[in-house]
Amino acid sequence: SLYDQAIEAWYKALTLQPDNPVIYLNMGIALFFIGKIEEAIEHYRKAVQFKENYAEATYRLGQALALRGDFRETYNLFHKTIKNDSGNASAYYIWSVTLFIDGQTSKAIKKLEKAIEIDFDNAHYHHQLAEMLLEPSASRDIDRAKKEFKIAHQLNPNYPIPTIERRYRDQPDF
């Protein structure tokens, strides 16, 4: 595959420049995309080791650790990423998803709102926010969810506008 070819090329590059954080980052990305999460984590850690405030490597490391369920370290890494790159909407987005998975819906919503503030034209962010707003732990803010679904659809017509009332009509806590 192309990822395997890229990994081979990055290994060769490491023999020439074994302390280059960009090589470790790109190697980690390629490994991540072929499902070798643990190896990707090792390479992201090396990138951060060689360049401490490397926002992209810190973000990618946090993303990989979140998949592994290491939420505490993930939160610290996302905080560090944002400190070094406050305009990183993707970091806020992944941070929000991690918080959501960890059952912290209200905090997840706040991080996702920040991602939207940075990148308003990202339809996926609006759609995800609408989905989070419909969760019982978010008090099912249906009116706001409807607005977010509409924005997502306006930005990208591939995002449908669901019939929310029908979706929750038969559930007792609606």
Describe the secondary-structure layout.
Elements: H1 2-16, H2 21-33, H3 37-50, H4 55-68, H5 71-84, H6 89-101, H7 105-118, H8 123-133, H9 142-155, H10 164-168
Helix pairs in contact: 1-2, 2-3, 2-4, 3-4, 4-5, 4-6, 5-6, 6-7, 7-8, 8-9
Order of helices and strands: HHHHHHHHHH
Helix-residue proportion = over 70%
pLDDT averaged over residues: 89
Shape: elongated
Low-confidence stretches: none
What is the chains' assembly state? single chain
Termini separation? 48 Å
Number of helices: 10
Report the portion of residues in β strands.
under 5%
Helix/sheet category: mainly alpha
**What Rg, in angstroms, do the CA atoms define?**
19 Å
Tally of DSSP β-strands: 0
Largest sheet: none
In short:
73% of the residues lie in helices and 0% in strands. The N and C termini lie far apart (48 Å). Helix 4 (55-68) runs antiparallel to helix 5.
Give a written overview of the molecule.
The protein is an all-alpha fold and 174 residues long. The chain has ten helices and no strands. It has helices at residues 2-16, 21-33, 37-50, 55-68, 71-84, 89-101, 105-118, 123-133, 142-155, 164-168. Helix 2 (21-33) packs parallel to helix 4 and helix 5 (71-84) runs antiparallel to helix 6 (89-101). It is elongated, with a radius of gyration of 19 Å. It starts with a helix and ends in a 6-residue tail after the last helix. The model has no long low-confidence stretch (mean pLDDT 89).
